[in-house]
Amino acid sequence: MSQVEPLIRLTVHGAAGRMGQRIVALAAKDPQLSIISAIDSPSSPVAGRDAGELAGIGKLGVPITSAISSSTDVIIDFSTPEATVKLMAICAERRIPVVVATTGLNEEQKQEIAAASQFAPIVFAPSMSLAVNVAMKLVREAAKALKDIPDGVDVEIIERHHRFKEDAPSGTALKFGQIVAAEMGQTGHTHGREGQTGKRPQTEIGYHAVRTGDNVGEHQILFGLMGETLEVYVRGHTRDSYAYGALAAAKFLAGRPAGLYTMADVLGL
Ligand SMILES: NC(=O)C1=CN([C@@H]2O[C@H](COP(=O)(O)OP(=O)(O)OC[C@H]3O[C@@H](n4cnc5c(N)ncnc54)[C@H](OP(=O)(O)O)[C@@H]3O)[C@@H](O)[C@H]2O)C=CC1
Ligand SMILES: O=C(O)C1=N[C@H](C(=O)O)C[C@H](O)C1
Q1: pLDDT tens, 229-245?
Q2: Using a 6 Å cutoff on CB, does residue 171 contact ligand 2?
Q3: Which domains does the chain have, with CATH numbers?
Q4: Alpha carbon distances (Å) from 127 to 3, 83, 216, 246
Q5: What is the rounded CA–CA span in Å between residue 101 and residue 99?
Q6: Eight-class DSSP state of 192
Q7: 14 annotated to bind ligand
Q8: Catalytic residue positions, numbered
Q9: What residues does 75 pair with on adjacent strands?
Q10: CB 84 within 8 A of CB 225
């Protein structure tokens, strides 16, 4: 006789936001998941509203609140750096697995995530998208292959996002830069250029953050050589590319030991 797996009880943190609403909408259709709470900021103007209605999928019977249910199996967090740090303390204390998708954290805030991962399993990644994580592998390969080219290689990263985005450059652009620097050894970075900049040193990576309309996310990694350019380009069409990845990460965490995991772990890349 086949055994029926129990549903994974999911809490969505940042549930009233752009990403939180897509997590609610897709998790509600997922036969392995049951949304048990939808958390947003204590001052949220939509506190008390039904999370399903807010996400446009009809009534779920789960109100937007600010208290995390003690019976949750896993939390998905798309919120703000400050809210993520507060959440880390709760997850560490109660040993709750959590998918941290929030970006824009400073080094100290990232340390809080690392510290919490000693007590609970955590997936922490600036992009939950499959295509972006595959692009990270390609960029690593390109950087390895090009690192010793005698005439040198200039690496520039262009990212485009919607006008509402609050951090720049994107967490994903910074991660692409870290991957390149780990292979090629650049030690500096420059953000945009203006004025008498002088010649471009190859010891830096250039970042360019474009903010227009409702763009859900594009990243272009340029390797500029003498005579040719290699570009790795990855573009999201909808936020569901991130939401599906986050749901996969939540399922990956079920039953895992405490530790810090990446989307490469989740996706087996
Ligand atoms: N890793 C990935 O794949 C992706 C990451 N992101 C990142 O996720 C984050 C959220 O993005 P997005 O959904 O577009 O942003 P939104 O601003 O639309 O959503 C964030 C939500 O978090 C809420 N919030 C604020 N404080 C708290 C709190 N203390 N507790 C719970 N919720 C709180 C906000 O409420 P209020 O508005 O009332 O303050 C808001 O509803 C960003 O950092 C973004 O860069 C986004 C897409 C993909
Ligand atoms: O804010 C967003 O929208 C996104 N943020 C993430 C980032 O900063 O890298 C991921 C994705 O690009 C969308």
Answers
A1: 999 999 999 999 999 99
A2: yes
A3: 8-128+239-267 (3.40.50.720), 130-235 (3.30.360.10)
A4: 34, 18, 12, 9
A5: 6
A6: S
A7: yes
A8: 161, 165
A9: 11, 98
A10: no
The rounded Å distance from CA 152 to ligand 1 centre is: 39
**Main-chain phi, psi angles of 98, to 5 degrees:** -145, 140
Question: What b/e readout covers 99-136, taking b as 16+ CB neighbours within 10 angstroms?
Answer: bbbbbbbeeeeeebbeebbeebbbbbbbbbbbebbebb
* pLDDT tens digits along 58-109: 999 999 999 988 899 999 999 999 999 999 999 999 999 999 999 999 999 9
Mean pLDDT over 137-141 rounds to 98
- Contact residues for 113 (Cβ-Cβ < 8 A; gap 6+): 84, 88, 100, 105, 122, 124, 260
Q: β-pairing, 8-13 with 33-39?
A: parallel
DSSP string, 40-107: --TT-TTTTSBHHHHTTS---S-BEESS--TT-SEEEE-S-HHHHHHHHHHHHHHT--EEE------H
168 is in an annotated binding site: no
